[in-house]
Structures are given as structure tokens and as C-alpha cells.
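Case study 2.
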Amino acid sequence: MQFIPVLVLMVLFFVMMFGIGFILNMLMKTTWFPSYLFVIVILPVVVYSLWDHSSTLMSHLGSFQLVDYMTGVAGLAGAIISGWAIQKLRLGGYRMF
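Prediction:
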């Protein structure tokens, strides 16, 4: 496992989820919707779509590499920080957000 591609992938997922979460928060006037969406919809869809159904769920989750988990955590962190940023902007008096 090379370090630079993993770092680039983590930054990419973080920025992508932050941007999508920030835009969703602005348009829908929600705060934590992208975080819930990531945990409830996106992660299970990814796990289910890669599952070959000939193995158990635990052996399937064990087949993921550290890189897969790191990118998932980076995406979740981006979604959470987008909600935090929107919340701070609203508390700061910005009505647009």
C-alpha cells in the first residue's frame, strides 16, 4: 500500500462529502442530513453492492482493506464537518445558510 495515493484518496473523499453535504445543507435547510444519509444509505449500499453473498457478512467486512475503511472515515468526517460548518454559520447570523 503506497502512502501518497491513499492520502490523495482520503482528501478527495473528505472534500467531496464536505462539498455535497454543504450544498445539501444549504438547499434543504438541514444541519445533519448528509451525515445521516452517509451512514444510513451510502455505506450499506456500498457494502451490499460489493458483497458476493457466498460469504457471511463478517467475513465480507473482514475482506476490506485498511484503505477502504480510511476513505470511508474520511468521507464521514467530511459530512460531519459540513454540518458543523453550517451550524456555526447559522449561529453567526448568516441567514443564507
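Residues 3-28 form the longest helix (26 residues).
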